[in-house]
TrEMBL record, chains A, B:
Official protein name in the record: 5-histidylcysteine sulfoxide synthase
Sulfatase-modifying factor enzyme-like domain location: 201-455
GO MF annotations, alphabetized: formylglycine-generating oxidase activity
Keyword RNA-binding: no
Length: 710, 710
């Protein structure tokens, strides 16, 4: 070990209630929680007795542990500087220890780019940071509840962040060469238990509704991805009594699991081929065909009764193999199914635990224990604890998702359908990780102290296509349809739909057609009054958002703020009060200049800022009466700003001179429509605003005319 | 003649007072004025006894007279349809007779494109139009005064329009083959007078101020170009007693005037070469070297005492020749000088004439008369009347120029510095043409019944560069700086300047620098408080507008309305209350990323939405303190919307992540400026709106920060 004094005990209290209590006692509680966390993280590095352990890449695509040693301190500083609560202590350290937590790209692998400081210098830096934060905790006013906006929030953020790295760094240490480590360190001794392997079985979990999402008023610290609301009815399923043990997993290995492509997803097979994997990473194949096992600091005999630790891809392949062998629909649980099981065993949340319910919170050994150690209700074992459990569900935000301004990339880079959630925590999970609401996700090939429980269910897994819309043409229309109002200008699609609905109060309201529906808001709004609404847009990329809203009830998009800085936004139908009309709306791609004849029989056609964006608008206008029912309404909204790159000038409806006199588009409406329509009321102006960046917008004024079929 | 009955008399009352009188009497007055005008125009065509006269091109670049015969009726209809007062009578005629009054391009010359109707059919159409307008005059309510907005205005417009064509068509008839015409028509007989040629001489005109421009409250019909206000001090000059007679012009011809390039402007020499002209157009060179003369309907002996009729180019060449011969600064008068002479002879305006003061209003013969026939005060002849007089001045709008919405291309196409004004009227000038305020202009090579008077003056001719700004990048900034407010957002340059001036009330206010001044408004506004302001912009096309405002006090620009339809706008400093600061402002082109060192010693530097539009902004910011005096102010306004096509990302000041954290441009200000500046007050947001079309706008929110040099 490179430090002089050893930590004698690691204290891991549950994360703090930030709502209740005496403010000054809360201040001391936070101080204790900070120091205990900082101490625990220091203790994790004590077994790294060789300096080279700090600069060895435990994983080829990760920084060496020296980075992580400095990183948790620098994270505190960077967030507190951003919050304007402290000044920098060591700008150089606070740059090199800032980023690179995740897998790096191949470009970053060149060691020459990194001149890591000496661990002693980092230790000294950590000490300065500790003092700085300690002072800050002393000086800052404590106002309960401590909320997102509180200056104590970034302190809690730093603490919980360090608790995450306590676990993830332990996984990296588990990959260091043994000779760099002190396997005898008293604080990090693994279990010596290994029971005779048990036979797994299935236990029924009844159907039930799962309600997820943390309230903004919740008393405990949470990461951005935990907030919001989401509920789902879960059909009954069976789940394995135990986590899959090494012994159970061995059947898959010995049955040629790692060499049979059909068990693997495409991503899984790519991984297995690239890694040339033949068994789980912490299994150590011996020359005689037997296996040893890697704990955090040591190599031990294979503990067959411990849970198998795999990545998602291996767990998934095991399930596919098991399904084939049994003929049953075996798979991993979804996030919701995992919660259904948790609810079923009626486990209270961490702060209410009388004692820790499983192998969790560093209260047991520094390793897994046999899968039949910790029993829960209904005969299940390890519902939480021992190792994390893989799920089928890529992480995404719940309805109402917002990003904390001090940490805008905690979650959003993982909302890419490539990061699956792991649930339940492991022997080294502490703090927020123990909470029911917490949600962590990793790339599917990543290793943590994670295994799995399989389930048997006829319910299909719905994998949401949940990346963030970044198409620069589409995102202004996401905000335009579903986002904030700017300059006091009311939401345009809502307003234009309201104009239509007001006109139609005493009319037949069967089918409506929203042409130029962009990302779909007007179609949903119209469905509040019409039996069925079809939204049509020329651009499939726009329509896709409407389809997402209909199918999933929400959509996610980024908005440019300044330069490359973006903000993240989620819109959902429920919050807009439109969830009830989802079934009455559909979206189609269509071309106004050549619209299929099937689009007819409407009581309303809304032609929304589209005429001036189509290449040949007259044909549609000339025949639109054929698409409308008797007394049907045609509502035209237009800015009349013809553009030659979209509509050749010879196809403009107006905006030119004929025989020396100006002919406006509005004039053309009279010319083309008067035979079959009469105008209702006067034209009116409706403003709309399209956001480009935080400070730049398009602000337009559409003219709306209403025509009734004669 | 092709018509059955001949007109026995042409009545040409003065144009009507539209303000005073009994409404019903006014209705009948207008009706009479309409019929008399219509009659006079019909009478003009009576000498065209051969049908072919209607379809012969009198001028190779003009339509045949059948077009003009139909045109004045169609003009009535098109304006009244536009005003929504009548329905079309003959859509086909109202298309073919609508446009093509002016010289056409070579493309339009193909006769096959035109199938002209029979003159009888046009006569019948004219009769229908007459009835239609007569009915309209009966039906419309008469409210005095009749103003621009009155439904009687387009009727007056049609009448005065026809009076213009009465004259211009007579010039075309003067170019038809004689055999197509009845030279004996009693209404159109020329003068038989030809006095012995008189010797011209110069008479002094004293200096004086000329005030021009018609009031909006004026009682008489006016074309758009007459309104507004303009005044100029005219230095004394001498003017020729007589218009230049044919005899006087002969000296120039015989002295090789048409073959000596040095007398001609470049445009003039091009014309003389192309036309192979050797004398004025209505001089008819005979084989024996003598000349005959063309009147409207006949060929007569050369009337040497009549005014020489030339285009501007010939008149100008004569003056240059005369200047060379006499050694005196001989030239044509400017518009203002012509008015100075008119004021000097104290001629009242047409409606106040007891009798017509010259050869005008068809009250004399259908031709010129000798130049010594009509005497005015101080010994001048033909100050008005006989023939129009060329001037040096291209037509432009006065301050306050606006366009009548029913006739948006009466004047603006001629505001191109290529159309010079003719003044004073000819024997066939009637109606509005007789009024002091009227302003007509033609291309410089065009023929009318026009000659000239020369003057001798030391004053230089200032030819305003007075076209309409149409640069699509510049015009939004003309409106942005000098035009209307949209969405209730206050004029931005005025507001940003006011912020600066408010800050500086108790400070030294010597030199100020407005960087990114666009079209200049902020520089003028700052000059209200600073001794001198330099406005700098990267774009010379922007600066040009500021320079125009400084030099001339006004600028003119078109704005896109819808498609190709534009509106015309004039901005002037006087109306903005900024005329007094013109001398305290100058404009320079400059590049913020590489700004010359001479720009220093300022008490204020305004950096106006420019940082984010320059390619390398940091250098300037780092050294801007060197350009400021002690306690000098730096005011930065920015939308922070960096664009890679302008500023490479490595040169952005903010809008990116450093060590994983967002760095804003505002952060960069602190970093770069804090050593030499302290921030005054808080940042504030200032909105601005850039008009794109009538219904589309950019609406941005700049952040303004103020920095005081330490």
């Amino acid at each position: 070990m490179i430090t002089d004094s050893l930590t004698s005990e690691i204290k891991t209290p549950y994360t703090l209630n930030l709502s209740e209590g005496d403010p000054e006692e809360k201040r001391e509680e936070i101080r204790r929680y900070f120091h205990q966390t900082y101490d625990a993280y220091e203790a994790l590095f004590e077994p790294m007795i060789k300096k080279v352990a700090y600069t060895t890449r435990a994983d080829a695509l990760r920084h060496p542990l020296i980075f992580y040693y400095g990183h948790t301190a620098t994270f505190f500083m960077n967030k507190l500087v951003l919050a304007k609560l402290v000044d920098r202590i060591n700008p150089k350290f606070e740059s090199i220890f800032a980023i690179g937590v995740d897998e790096m790209s191949w470009d970053d692998l060149n060691e020459a780019h990194y001149e890591w400081p000496d661990p002693e210098a980092v230790r000294e830096y950590r000490s300065q940071v500790r003092d700085c934060i300690d002072n800050l905790i002393t000086e800052l006013p404590v106002n309960l509840p401590i909320s997102w906006e509180s200056p104590f929030w970034p302190i809690m953020m730093g603490i919980e962040h360090e608790r995450i790295h306590l676990e993830t760094s332990s996984v990296l240490i588990r990959q260091l060469p043994l000779e760099q480590l002190d396997s005898q360190h008293p604080l990090w001794q693994p279990s010596s238990e290994d029971t005779s392997p048990v036979s797994n079985s299935l236990i029924e979990v009844p159907a039930g509704e799962v309600k997820l999402g943390k309230s903004r008023e919740d008393a405990y610290y949470g990461w951005d991805n935990e907030y919001g609301s989401y509920s789902k009815d879960i059909t009954h399923f069976s789940a394995s009594k135990y986590l899959v043990s090494n012994k159970e997993f061995l059947e898959f290995v010995e049955d040629g699991g790692y060499s049979t492509q059909s068990y693997w997803t495409e991503e899984g097979w790519n991984w297995v081929s690239y890694e040339k994997a033949t068994c789980p990473r912490f299994w150590l194949p011996q020359e005689d065909g037997s296996y040893k096992f890697r704990t955090m600091l040591d190599q031990i005999d294979m503990p067959w009764s411990w849970p198998a630790e795999t990545n998602y891809l291996e767990a998934k392949a095991f399930c596919n193999w098991k399904a084939e062998k049994t003929g049953q629909p075996v798979r991993l649980p979804t996030e919701e199914e995992w919660y259904r099981l948790l609810d079923y065993v009626a486990l209270p949340d961490a702060p209410e635990w009388e004692q820790v319910p499983g192998n969790l919170n560093l209260e047991g050994p520094a390793s897994s224990v046999p899968v039949d150690t910790h029993e829960f209700k209904h005969g299940f074992y390890d519902v939480v604890g021992n190792v994390w459990q893989h799920t089928e569900t890529p992480i995404r935000g719940y309805a109402g998702f917002e990003i904390h301004p001090l940490y805008d990339d905690f979650s959003t880079p993982t909302f890419d359908t490539k990061h699956n959630m792991i649930k339940g925590g492991s022997w080294i999970s502490t703090g927020n990780e123990l909470m029911r609401d917490s949600r962590y996700a990793f790339r599917r090939h990543f290793y943590q102290h994670a295994g799995f429980r399989y389930i048997v269910s006829e319910a299909p897994v719905e994998i949401p296509d949940d990346s963030w819309e970044t198409d620069p043409e589409v995102i202004p229309y996401c905000e335009f349809n579903y986002g904030k109002e700017y300059f006091g200008v009311a939401n345009y699609p809502e307003k234009i739909a309201q104009i239509c609905l007001d006109l139609a109060t005493k009319r037949t309201r069967g089918k409506a057609l929203a042409l130029g529906c962009k990302t779909g808001r007007s179609a949903f709004e119209l469905a509040a009054g019409y039996e069925h609404v079809t939204g049509i847009d020329f651009t499939a990329r726009m329509i896709r958002i409407g389809v997402q809203m209909k199918d999933k009830g929400y959509t996610q998009y980024v908005l440019p703020e300044e330069g490359e800085i973006v903000s993240f936004h989620q819109a959902n139908l429920q919050e807009l009060g439109l969830d009830c009309v989802r079934d009455n709306v559909d979206f189609m791609q269509g071309d106004l200049s050549n619209l299929k004849e099937i689009y007819s029989g409407y009581d309303l056609i809304l032609l929304d800022t589209l005429l001036e964006r189509t290449y040949s608008p007259e044909k549609f206008l000339k025949s639109v009466h054929d698409r409308l029912n008797e007394k049907g309404l045609l509502v035209i909204s237009s800015t009349y700003d013809w553009q030659t790159n979209i509509t050749e000038q010879e196809n403009w409806l107006g905006g030119f001179k004929v025989d020396g006199e100006n002919v406006t588009t509005r004039d053309a409406f009279d010319r083309i429509l008067s035979a079959n329509f009469k105008q209702l009321g006067n034209s009116r102006d409706v403003e709309y605003v399209l956001r480009k960046t935080a400070r730049t917008f398009d602000h337009n004024v559409a003219e709306v005319t209403v025509w009734e079929k004669k």
